[in-house]
Amino acid sequence: MMDHIVVFPVILPLLLGVLLLLLQNQKLLFKRTLSLLAVALQVVAAGVLLNLVSSGEILVYALGNWAPPFGIVLVADRLAAWMLLITSLVSLCALLYAVRGTDIAGPHFHVLFQLQLLGLNGAFLTGDLFNLFVFFEILLLASYSLLLHGGGRLRTKAGLHFVVINLVGSTLFLFAVGILYGLLGTLNMADLAVKVAETSTENVVLIQTAGLLLFAVFALKAALLPLYLWLPSAYAYTTASVAALFAIMSKVGAYSILRVYTLIFGAQAGPAENLIEPWLLPLAMATLIIGVLGVVASSHLRQQVAYLVLASIGMLLIAFGLNNNVGIAAGLYYLPHSTFAAAAFFLLADTITKRRDGMGDKFEPGPVIMHTRLFGVLFFAIAILIAGLPPLSGFIGKFMILQAALPHSIFPWILGTVLITSLFTLIAMARGGSMLFYKALPATVCKIGPDREIPPTALMLSRELVSIISLLGLCVALLIWGGAITAFTLATANQLLQPDAYIQSVLNARVISS
Amino acid sequence: MEALVAIIIGVLTACGVYLTLRGRTFPVVLGLTFLSYAVNLFLLVMGRLTIGQPPIISEGIENYADPLPQALVLTAIVISFAMTAFVIVLALKAHLEMGNDHVDGKHKS
Questions:
Q1: Which of B17, B35, B104 to mutate to test the interface with A (most CBs of A within 10 A)?
Q2: Deepest in the core among A262, A370, B31, B45, taking most CB within 10 A?
Q3: Domain extents in chain A
Q4: ipTM higher than 0.85?
Q5: Is residue A365 within 8 Å of residue A440, measured between CB atoms?
């Protein structure tokens, strides 16, 4: 039974998605319970998996019992399990928020939600490059529909841009996969790592081309400069719970960069070693700067949060771009923090927007919202988290990244970029917060809750806030167990930078005897 | 033969890129279709062009057709087919909601 735990995070959302499609005429409560139970089970499964691989063991699951490198394998190492856990936690919180009413704004919300999880979990687990493409397409197709969930003109326009740019990205992905297969005759990532290292000199240029094409695709998914333009409008106009789930989706690109460029084009790749090292760090710094400029220039709260996601991608990829073990470890600590904080902020922005009658989320003096102190405190906490002020996890993440950057040759530039952008983030969020909470027109207290007519009861309020507070709680947990978590991320980084163990585990994997 | 196929892939890609950069949704959809045709052909050619060779191991035969690219192409065709259907519906929806077929929803005189 334990042999099959690796495939569980892929199978469960697939079966549940199909089941929910068949049960679409059942009672809403039943569908919601089923969906929530499934996501909760995925949290448990990811926890079990993390526990199994935390010792450094690499679990390989040969799908259809085809021995690697011929069949498709799923591989669970520390990084994959860590990403699975973060994904399932964020999606549980997003779903808890969605079951309050977002899920009935359009058909098949729960089906699409499960399929999105299938794509995400599969992308983190797969050990095959073409299979990675397939899981990307699954998660993208689900995300196209989730993005449009609820309808609306701005949403449709953002959705069209998102779909077209991602389809072009998929085409580039296939070109890169085609080149690699045509030259090396394999698509298994571990096998590719071996073959790339042994490439003959006349093929090196083509291999590098394929590697850089792949980088363009992953940079597009991660929204790295100059391929970021789809992100702000897509994230700003979609529904809040979907945006919260999307906080992890852009991290898939960062994950793929980390996986492919440590394993296949890493330090041991012979002629193609450290292929993207000259590109990643400068582009990540530029992304951080552009993201923060967007944060400062935003006229709407949701737009500001979307640009904050972009800035956090820049920060994360700076950490990965340092290309040393402490840098990657710091990035892997910063990744869950930034995901949880961004998801919480999307949800909070939605609760605030719904309470400002007619004003929406514009940064203009509006009516005093109900429970203004409570929301003010939450806003303040998230602002501290995101700007990276002590004592919360944002500070630790940024501090670790800067510490890892110390030996780097352009350390002054990294330090300057990170500190100045943090300052600007702080200023922009202070301005936004004071506009929403202090500069309110005191004569008019807006007594509407999220459901318009009736003022919210304590029960409704707590149902709204439970996801936001859970996400903040997860950030606090990152702080409290910081020692254990940083030890784990450092072990993960070391495992990534020594891919021999991964390659050996995959290529020597035993198929299960019948 | 290789040169001819390579030229076809190149022309398809060029047409696809040009059309994808157009301002209206219908040429963009056509461009995406051309790009997916080009990449499907490209994947197929990656197994090398062979004629009349068996794809399954059998006795007394030394040259084989590579079956894997054919499987990859089949997957890619299915996916691009679904995506094209989706993007056409989305373009129609955008046309109805925004009142014109420009990708940015702007009126063009």
A1: B35
A2: A262
A3: 276-480
A4: yes
A5: yes
